[in-house]
Design goal:
A hairpin with a 7-residue loop joins strand 4 and strand 5. The protein has about 150 residues and is of the alpha+beta class. The chain has two domains: about 50 residues, no CATH class; about 90 residues, Nuclear Transport Factor 2, Chain: A, CATH 3.10.450. It has a five-stranded mixed sheet, with helices on one face. About 30% of the residues lie in helices and about 15% in strands. The chain starts with a helix and ends with a strand. The radius of gyration is 29 Å and the shape is rod-shaped. The protein contains three helices and five strands, in the order ααβαββββ.
Amino acid sequence: MNEKDVAKNVDAATARGTRAGAAPMPSFRRTSSLLALVVAAVMTVGVQAKSPEGLGADVSLSSLPAQAQKTDQLIHSGGPFPFSRDGVVFGNYEKRLPREPRGYYHEYTVPTPGARNRGARRIICGGQQPTEPDACFYTEDHYNSFHRIVK
């Protein structure tokens, strides 16, 4: 390369806003657009984490089947429960309920008339005091979807 070539290279780089021999610098407009996309993606992920998939509309206790209302009474009175698995820790492995530490949620069977086993219906309650839960959720499809129970 001679001096004229070097001068051309420097002039061309200056016109592009780069150093001679370096790759072009990204424009401010492109950089700010990329930053806006990243911020939007992070905000979307944050919203999804707060609204677990599978959590449906709230339901009133009085609108639930009689068996669910009876199970709710047993939960608040401390039992006795008809099934040995009632009161065990619910793991929330599918993350369909709000995230809480392990041991926060407990599950209770809602008997299904005519079923030969425990059936698919459950009430899941969370909180430190089993007889005074912070929140309870009803599922009629064995943990595929939940509805917060309101009194």
